[in-house]
Amino acid sequence: MGLILLLTFVFCFGNIYAQPAAPNKLDKENRRHGEWIFYIDTNDQYISSPDTAGTYRLAKYDHGKLQGKVPQYDYKDRLLYESEFSSLNPDTLNGLYISYFYSGKKHEEFEYVNDVVNGKTITYYENGNVYIDVAFKNGKHNGLYKEYYDNGKLHRTGSMTEGKKDGNFIFYAQDGKIEEERMYVNDMLDGEKKVYKDGRLNYGMPYDNGKLNGVGQFYNPDGTINDYFIYYEGNETDITKLIEKTADLISSMDVEAGLTLGMIIEEYFRKKYGTDNELYEFAVSTLATFYFMSGDQDSAVTWIKKNADIYIKKIDTEKEPGADKWHMMSLMCEAYNLTDEAIIANLRTIARSYKNGKPTEETLEYMNRLAHFYYVQYRDMEANKVYDDLLALIESDKKEFSDTYVYYGLEYADELYDHNEINNALSLLNKIEPYAKTSEKNSITYKKANIYSDQNNIDKATILYSQLFESFGKTQPDTLLHILIMEKLAYHNSDIANYAAAEKLYIDMLALTEKYDQSKDAFYYNYVNDLADFYDRVGRYSKSLSLRNEMVQYYKSQIENPSTLDFLLDTVLLKSLYLSTLLDNAETNRLAGNNEITGNILRDVVSQSKSLSGDTTMTYMRSIAALAGWQLDNYQYESSESNYKSVIDISEKYFAETDVNYDTWKDNLSELYFRTKNYDAALKLAEEVYEVRKKTYKENDPMLLASYGRLSEIYEAKGDIEKAYAYLKKDMDARVAKIQSDFSIMNQNEKEQYLSTFRYRFDEFNFFAFQHVATIPAIAQDVMNYQLANKSMLLYSVSAARTT
To answer: How far apart are CA 404 and CA 401, in angstroms?
Structure first.
């Protein structure tokens, strides 16, 4: 009977695919229990019927929990896998996984954690020897990789990172000798692939990011290098072809290809000939040029310095580079602030530009460049010396250089003027004037007039500007200089309160600008803005608004019409000009008393400037600060405070070193706190602003005077009369000192303005003294002293009025 039962079981088992999954049972709580059979099709999907199954799994459950390993068989009942699962259908592998050959011998061993391979894994040959030995981490090869021949000898080994070959891989022959060494980076061949013959290094193939690119080398039997060869873009080539290609890459500005090529050339010459060979200079120069073009500062500096060092070693030798190469070197050194190398390069450029021991036109221009470079480095004395030498060279041979004397003299005079050597600039202009042609004489006269203007010698400046103005149209056609002179004359007439003459000049200047430029463009509207500013200054706001509205419409039309040239040049810049024009429009409306219009414009500009470039631009900061000021004047203190804080935060974050308005905005916020009687907050900001201004401005500068006034009123409001008096006295003393030091060189308009301000501050001091003389008796003497200064200015006013 037992035999019959056994045969019956074998028969049933051998035909399991034709039978239902009878053993599968559930316990009372619907959990799997006992032996279960799971059928799997050829796509590794679970199926309920054995008819189409390719494999099956046998599992044992104890009230829902898997017990032990789960074997998997094929249709011939051959064991394929044994695995540890935490769940089946759906599967989650957890533990050891073993696969088998059909012979029943072990094929693979893997460790799973939450269905992901982790830990050491081994793959075997059918003979039982290890085939691959490697560790996994999170499902990817990670760590040392070893692969063996079927005889058990090592075939190759290397390291893996995140499933990719990374580092050195070594390949061995069956006899144990090395066949190859390969370097991998991120699964790509990178570096020298070393190929061995009979265990000895034979040659090395250059790889770069998976491609054959670079300098390869042949080796002698003793391991020393025999010779070099080159691969470029996957093909073997020779050095001459690469050198020819560099010129094409420089002219086409193909920096990426140029750097690749340059590195190959540098490596080839360095290895084959050494760094002292003159061929190496070409390689370094090539790399320096391409890195200079690339903008990669660190690499550019490295190679430019190497190039400069090579050049410097050749000074005063037959192999010293010519002026052109030294000049190129100077440009590259200047670009990356290699000051010492740049100066040497400039000096050698000058020296090498001589021909037959005599200077050339190029010599003079190179000297001019060196002088400019010295000025940029704040080495004014050395710059002046170069210019003096330059002019001396011309003076020694005026026949040869007659056309350049005035040109370089004007260049020198401009630098002297820009570096506050005004008297020296004036002397030089007088010296070169006799040699000037008509157009050059006009330039000299214009520069002299500018100097007299800066010296507050208004009469002389006006005479020269007028002479130039009269000469135009008579002796020569209208030019840009004509427009600039009219601008200066208009400004000076405005400054001396000759408003009728100033207005006529501004209007004529606009007509001339339109004629000169043959259109009403941004250049024209720049001068429209000047005329609008003039009308603001003299209180003719309706005329100013008419001009400003015209400007707004112009810039708006430029933005709306994409075909215009201005729009094509720079969209963001054009929109910024438009917003700036709106801000000026808002300011004129404010002056004209159009309060509601002003607020609407400012809110619109804030919104537009933020949408244009975000909240990190000067345009946005200027607009939100203007809105904060308008809100302050209209008692919208909460909104004003929020906007002032915002603009101060933006300035600190993005423009900490460059924003000149930062302290003014803090001062305005201090004023807001003063008005709202938050005196502690007002004082904190006012003191911060004062500390900065004290270090930045002279004692009688208006910015510092404003801080004295602010601190005085805050301390008075807080009841600290002694400190209020101290700052108020500082303010008055500084104003009196300015009268003594600067009053004589002010023009009439400046004097009248200063007198008006002084008298206003004097009245404020008198009022303060009247209130607090009992507390501070010494203030009475101050009142008398300032009264004397005030009387002397009143006498000046009467005298000036009689003269007028």
So the answer is: 6
Measured CA distances, 159 to 57, 142, 143, 171, 380 (Å):
36, 7, 5, 13, 61
Host domain of residue 764: 697-803
Could you tell me the CA-to-CA distances from 39 to 32, 68, 69, 84 in Å, in that order?
16, 19, 17, 17
pLDDT of residue 715: 94
User: Cβ(106)–Cβ(98) under 8 Å?
Assistant: yes
Under a CB-based contact definition with an 8 Å cutoff, are residues 408 and 393 in contact?
no
Q: How far is CA 706 from CA 664, 702, 710, in A?
A: 10, 6, 6
Domain boundary (180, 204, 232) is at 232
- What kind and span of H or E run contains 413? helix 405-418
**Residue indicated by tokens 């990719």:** 164
Residue 59: phi and psi, rounded to 5, are -130, 150
Q: Which of 232, 262, 295 is the last residue of a domain?
A: 232
* E-assigned strand segments in 118-243: 119-124, 130-137, 140-148, 154-161, 164-165, 167-172, 178-185, 188-189, 191-197, 200-208, 211-212, 214-219, 225-232, 235-237
Query: Which pLDDT score is estimated for 474?
Result: 58
* Nearby residues of 620 by Cβ (< 8 Å), 6 or more positions away: 606, 609, 610, 613, 614, 650
The answer to whether position 686 is within a domain reads: no
Positions of the chain with pLDDT lower than 50, given as ranges? 1-22, 565-569, 797-804
If one counts the domains in the chain, the total is 2
Tokens of 545: 């608004």
pLDDT of residue 201: 93
User: Length of the chain in residues, anyone?
Assistant: 804
Domain assignment present for residue 204? The answer is yes
Burial class (CB in 10 A: 0-12, 13-18, 19+), 327: buried
Query: Domain holding 224: CATH number?
Result: 3.90.930.1
Integer Cα distance of 658 and 654 in angstroms: 9
pLDDT, residue 350, reads 96
- Compute CA distances 337 → 330, 341, 372, whole Å: 10, 9, 14
**Alpha-carbon separation of residue 296 from 209, 281, 350, 636 (angstroms):** 21, 21, 29, 51
Distance, in Å, from the CA atom of 769 to the CA atom of 724, rounded to the nearest integer, reads: 11
Determine, yes or no, domain membership for 115: yes
- Would you say 545 and 589 are in contact if contact means Cβ atoms under 8 Å apart? yes
Alpha-carbon distance of 792 to 604, in angstroms, equals 50
